[in-house]
Every structure is written in structure tokens, then in C-alpha cells.
Amino acid sequence: MVLTDEEIKKLAVEVRKEIIEMLLEAKSGHCAGPLGAVEIYLTLYFGGILQYDSHRPLWEDRDRVVVSNGHYAPLLYAVLAHAGYFPLEELKTLRKLGSRLQGHPHRLSLPGIETSSGPVGEGLSQAIGMALGLKMSKKKQQVYCLMGDGEQDCGNTWEAAMLAGKYQLDNLTAVIDRNSIQIDGFTKNVMPLEPLKAKYESFGWKVLEVDGHNISELKQAFQAAKSIFVRPVLIIAHTIPGKGVDFMQWEYRWHGRVPNSQEAEQALRELRTIKGKIEAE
Amino acid sequence: MLNKNIYLNEKVFEKERKLIASRDGFGEGLVLAGEKDERVVALCADVTESVRMHLFKNRFPQRFVELGIAEQNMAAVASGLAATGKIPVMGTYAVFSPGRNWEQIRTTICYNKQKVIIIGSHSGLNVGADGGSHQALEDIALTRVLPHLAVVMPADALEARKAILEAIHYSSSVYIRLTRTKSPLLTTEKSPFQIGKSQVFWLPKEGEQFSGITIFVSGYLVFKALEAAKELEEEGINIAVINNSAIKPLDEKLILEWAKKSKMIITLEEHQKAGGMGSAIAEFLSAHHPLPIKFMGVNDKFGESGEADELIKKYGLDEEAIKKAVKECLK
Known about the structure:
Largest sheet of chain B: 7 strands, mixed
CATH class of the largest domain in chain B: Alpha Beta
Strand content of chain B: 15-25%
Radius of gyration of chain B: 19 Å
Helix content of chain A: 40-55%
Helix content of chain B: 25-40%
Strand order of the largest sheet of chain B: 3-2-4-5-7-6-12
Radius of gyration of chain A: 18 Å
CATH superfamily of chain A: Thiamin diphosphate (ThDP)-binding fold, Pyr/PP domains
CATH architecture of the largest domain in chain B: 3-Layer(aba) Sandwich
Number of strands of chain A: 7
Order of helices and strands of chain A: HHHEHHEHEEEHHEHEH
Order of helices and strands of chain B: EHEHEHEHEHEHEEEEHEEHEHEHH
Largest sheet of chain A: 5 strands, parallel
CATH topology of chain A: Rossmann fold
Largest interface: A-B, 32 and 30 residues
Distance between the termini of chain A: 24 Å
Number of helices of chain B: 11
Structural class of chain B: alpha/beta
Oligomer: heterodimer
Number of domains of chain A: 1
Structural class of chain A: alpha/beta
């Protein structure tokens, strides 16, 4: 499904509302990260980038998406539902006993999930394995690995980065949701990452930096990654954690905290106002 | 006497017997597997020749991935390869895999249910001079607790070759425990080998009374148990020796059958007593047919440098220690 930039902006507001509602109902889960990464996911799935068919989740010519930071499950689930993999009504079952929407995605529980995740730092390796496997089979499909910035702390991430550089995997595009927060605080205080771009470049990657809320910049970066560069590409997407909800923005404590009903009501009110503004433009 | 029904190597006790390590059998088997099935790919973490994967690498360079010293990466990359329909075989020393990369194996292979064959070479004390840091004595405990992962330890190079060929088609991921040190071939081409099935290698001589002592042993120590059994038979003590290659799933039918015939059993492995093969057998028998068990293994210590057989003797797992254990059981 391909949408216009305007349609994606409107859908972004819907998805943010759905994330808040899901988390309120589930009473646990991760908030700030998913809210911040909405434009990244929507551009990938609806901006004419990813090749997929939600009616044939295992279509052998599909591109692959590895969500390495699995705690972004609420966002992933909302996007997959809008893409048609399962009904929107199922979103309210997040994290409940017997639900297909497990707290962290499980590959076999829901169509559209390429791999289970949760423990960060091992998604890039899996994405590389997929990229290598596709190349060995002489297939042209792309592999996308969506990561957080906190998992750049993990040794495994850098083992993977080195391997991608060694094999110059041009069918691999990674995205870091650079929201500058992790559980214990801001990344610069917990484990400084800069210069992040230079690090990946030194490992043989091409690095693009974009405003993670600008759909047009994201689209251009994804397209360039796919068609121009003959090496693995990393898109560092700068985002605001908790984006869309005033009292959640830039507050790292909202990483793993869910809104209570009052906070949720306030958040939803804000999001409705934003939506009204977009529709008025 | 050697079990005649399973075509064991009649020359196993001869001085000029061929000595070959299980890792060598694996290396040959991997090439055969690659020839049989083009989906087979191999991964290694800088120890290609040590784990005998260089044979596959030379034969199928396009299907071999060298990751350098990065075992966590190796497990998760293997998972990704499996996701695209490949049958990945990843290998290094057991201390590093499943040692270092246990969580990646847990999440990306087992929890994720992606089929990967995991080779843990250089297991046990017989690693020798490299010392305790390189002697894996915990890998059975680490692997058997993971769902969707079978655990098997071949007794010789031929069983190792059969193990990798079968693992390629087995229904789940498989951990194959191998050793560095050369040992006699115990089996022949015709000897049966199956993941999940163990075999009786030594039986009480026909017409002789069974002492009621059965040894369950795996890997490099199997031939030591056979040597002990032969010497005991010459002394008039007739025991049974079972090559317990099937660590998970256990060959419950065979274990139960022999537990019922026995007064006491001995479990023998180059592994910590805690959580190893003996522990697995004890878990099963205490629920189904409790009987006294003597555990022979490493007593909550690490290994150290020395020659393979010196270490096995020092840690009380050699032929003399086995004979002594049998006699103690008889008291």
C-alpha cells in the first residue's frame, strides 16, 4: 500500500493514538520510543519503499524487516495492522494471556513478523544473515534492520557492523532511531555514542542523517539506500522520544512507563488537536 | 563382550587400531552434507581448521561465512541465514558456543524456532594443554535446558559423521558435542546411529552372570569404559556399557530397560556432574525407576593444562577409576 506524504502524516496521528490506547489497555509496555519512531515505520511501509504483500506474509520475493529493538512492539503492531496483516481490533489484546500480540514480538505468533526480538543487540546480526542468505540464493530483495540507539552499547551490534562492512552488503539498510534516551537516562550520560556516524563509516558503511519526523527526508534516504549505494547503508534518524504528546517529549522516564487513564486522556486530546491542525492545512 | 548386533569395530582393542578424533569425522561429514543438500551453509569464528570446517570451506567457498572472533554474531547470523531457507552449521569451541553466545542461541535460534546446527568442539578435559579456560565442562547443562534443541555426543569419528548428516534433516536445531583428541573407531559404517537413540556397546558375555552394573557414558570416554569392561570381564565381572550419545532427547526406552535389569548404574562424562548427562539420566530415572546411581564426572572444579589422558586420570575418569567404581558399586 502506498500513501501520499499527507496521508502518512494523518496516519501518524492515528497510530500515535493507537499506541497510547494499546498501552493504557495493556497496563505495561513501552511508550516514548514507539511514539518517536512512527514516521520512520510509516515511511518504510507506506512510502513506496518496502516490497511486501500482507495477504501473502511469506511471499518469497518480499523484502525483510528486522525490528531489533523489539520493545517497539506497539508501534510495529499498529503499523502491521494498518498494512493489513491482521485486524485493527486485535490491537487492544496487546500483552494479554493468549494474545498474538506478545509483549515483545514472536516470529510465529503473528503474520508480518520476520524474527522474534526483545533482547537488543542481535537484530543487525540476523538482518545480515538474511542479507547473506538472499545473496547466496542470488535474490534481489532488500533487508531493513530497525534499531534503537541504546543497543549501540552492545558488543554484538558492532560485531554485526563489522561483518556487514566485510561483505559490503548492498542489500542491507539499517535505521537507528536516534532518540537519545535509554532506560537509565539520556544516552550521552549512560553511554555516549558520538561520533556515531563516523563509527559506522569507519566500519565500511555509508551513513545518512535525517530528521526522523520528516517523511520526505526519510523517503529520499530509503530510496538512495536501495538504489544508489553499493555498500550497507545506515540511516541515523533523529527523533524526539514521546513525539506528539507534549508532556512525554524528551522525558526518558517515559521509555517504559505507560500512561494511566488521566494521562492517556490528555495525550489523546493533544493528538486529536494535532490531527485537527493537519486536516485544516 | 562387544555387542555383536550393531557391527562394532572388532579391532577396537588392537594396538594398531586407527585413532581419529570426532571433530575429524564431523569435518568429513559436513562436506558430504554440503554435497547432498545445497541449502547447507557453514559459519566459523576464526577456528576453521581446528573444527575441521576448512574442508567444507575449500569445497564450497561461496557457502562459507568467516566471522572472525564473534560468536554472538555467529549465532544470530546463522538464525538469519535459516530465515532465508538455508541450513546453517556453526562451529567453534564449546566454551565459546554455547558459552559466550548462549543468549543469542536461546533467543534467535531456540525461542525463534529457526533451525541451526551448533557444533561445540573441544569439549571436556581432553582438550589438554590449552588448559581450563578452553575445556568446556558445562556445555551439556547449557544446551539441554533450551527448548527446541536436541543434544547429541558422538562416541567416535564415524558417529560424528553420521550425526551431522542426520542433523541436517532433523526436525529441530541440534547441538553436537565434539572432541579434539584422537580416539579409536568404535563403530563401523553399518553400526546404527540416530539422534535420540543410544546403543548398548558392551554386554555381559553369553552364559555369564550379569553383575547388575550398567555404565552410561558419552563421547571420548566410551572407549575407556570399554577397556575397563574388557578388563573386568577377564576378572569375571560382567557389566554393560551403553554409549549414551542421545543426551536430549534421552533414549528413555533403552535407559528404562537397562535400569530395570540393573542393581546400580554409573554415569560417566567429561562434564561437571551438575547438570550434565548423568544428571539428565537421574532426572528421568528418579521419576520412573529410582535406583542407586554413581555419578562420574568433574566435581565442581575447572580443568587445567596437561595431556588428555593424564588429565582424565587425574580427574578420576580413566579405566582404573572406572573399574574401581564398578567394584565399589558391587559392595
